[in-house]
Amino acid sequence: MQIQEIKFSLLSIPTNPARSSAAEIASGRSDKITTLVVRIKTKSGIEGIGFAYSLQGGGKAMLALGQEDLAPILINENALDNEKLAAKVYWRTQTIGRTGLVQQVYSAIDIALWDIKGKAANLPLHKLLGGFRDSIPAYISHTGWLWMSVGQIIDLSKPYLDQGVMGLKVKVGANPQSDIERIENLREALGAEIWLAVDANERYDTGTALAMGNFFQDEIGVGWFEEPISCENIKGHTYLANKLDIPIAAGEMLFSREEFHNYVEKSALDIAQPDITRLGGITNTLKLIHYCESQNIPVSPHLLPEIAVQIGCGLAQVTSVEYMPWFETLFNEYPKFKAGKLTPPDGPGLGLSLSEKALHEFSVT
b or e along 186-225 (b: 16 or more beta carbons within 10 Å of the residue's beta carbon)? Predict the structure, then answer.
């Protein structure tokens, strides 16, 4: 399964509704997402696709890293040798940094390699990974941005809630007092039975996070408190996890398994949320999930339902996936809700094919 060609495309994909979180207070709403698409063609004719994204710059740097530094060392290698190729990239990037944008570019490549594996085996990826289930609980998060009123959140969420999805996640973190009022009103509008999680995008300090966490658990009832403080503050996460009864969810900003190990070893999180396109692709994500299984830590991947649904249906330790359909227009197929759970496409590999229309319309030249 020799690699013949690796082709990268840089896109700017419109998102609707626009995003607005505590991570983007200074820049306000954003309605575009920078996306790096990779297509790996093998000499046997099988082509795999992968992608990664950037929220606040770095797109052209990712494109250059892929074209100039990573692709040349992978040409003519066996596309099925994902461990060998990951090691080759690991040592190639020793002196330029192995995380950040480098990790994101290789994540896209690794995803494409796994797409090739599934296609070569003529199996959907979730079957190749173990076939634990055919669908998985999913919560929606694209209906809870900071700029949205409670009424808008309810209106946008209702079609999904009516289908029986797990629940929804909303943003907090901009202002504690306004967060309290907004979440109180939202819980009242939703009722007590709807699952609700909150995400502060690291913007509280430890003291504020403790106070807000007590409010969320005592007055609201939330499924988890996500990224309450800076991801660099592991000690603070440990403190909050010990003080609060509600689960602390974290991990989307961690770019290596070693960083996750530090969190787990210091009891700094209750739910692991790896971002598949920041951790090193499917290969590293699988290793992390198996590690979390050994430590009794549930996993709920950050974003990327297109890939997470395959991993989640393959492995038991993944308890839910996040439904954020940013990339729906990029593909001709997409995961679907059935009886409230998310179901992967039927085809082999990721079960996805790229929309040529999207590649043309959203191209960044």
Answer: bbeebeeebbbbbbbbbbbebebbbebbebbeeebebbbb
Distance of alpha carbon 174 from alpha carbon 155, whole angstroms? 22
Return the number of other C-beta atoms located less than 10 Å from residue 81's C-beta.
15
CA distance 148 to 64: 36
- Strand residues in the chain grouped as ranges (E): 3-19, 30-42, 47-54, 136-140, 167-171, 195-199, 225-226, 248-250, 271-272, 321-323, 336-338, 341-343
DSSP state string for 248-268: EEE-TT--SHHHHHHHHHTT-
The pLDDT tens digits for 195-248 are 999 999 999 999 999 999 999 999 999 999 999 999 999 999 999 999 999 999
On whether the CB atoms of residues 257 and 291 are closer than 8 A, the answer is yes
How far apart CA 275 and CA 184 sit, in angstroms, is 30
C-alpha to C-alpha distance for 14 and 111, rounded to whole angstroms: 22
Beta strands in 96-245 (DSSP E): 136-140, 167-171, 195-199, 225-226
Long-range contacts of 218-223 (CB under 8 A, 24+ apart): 219/184, 220/183, 220/184, 220/187, 220/196, 221/187, 221/192, 221/196, 222/196, 222/197, 222/198, 222/246, 223/139, 223/167, 223/195, 223/196, 223/197, 223/247
The 3-state DSSP class for residue 131 equals: coil
Q: Which residue has the tokens 């609060």?
A: 244
Contact 10, 60 (CB under 8 A): yes
Q: What is the pTM assigned to this prediction?
A: 0.96
Hey, what domains does the chain have and what are their CATH numbers? Answer: 3-122+355-361 (3.30.390.10), 127-343 (3.20.20.120)
The predicted-structure confidence for 295-353, as pLDDT tens digits, reads as follows 999 999 999 999 999 999 999 999 999 999 999 999 999 999 999 999 999 999 999 99
Strand partners, 19: 30
For the annotated catalytic residues, the residue numbers are: 171, 302
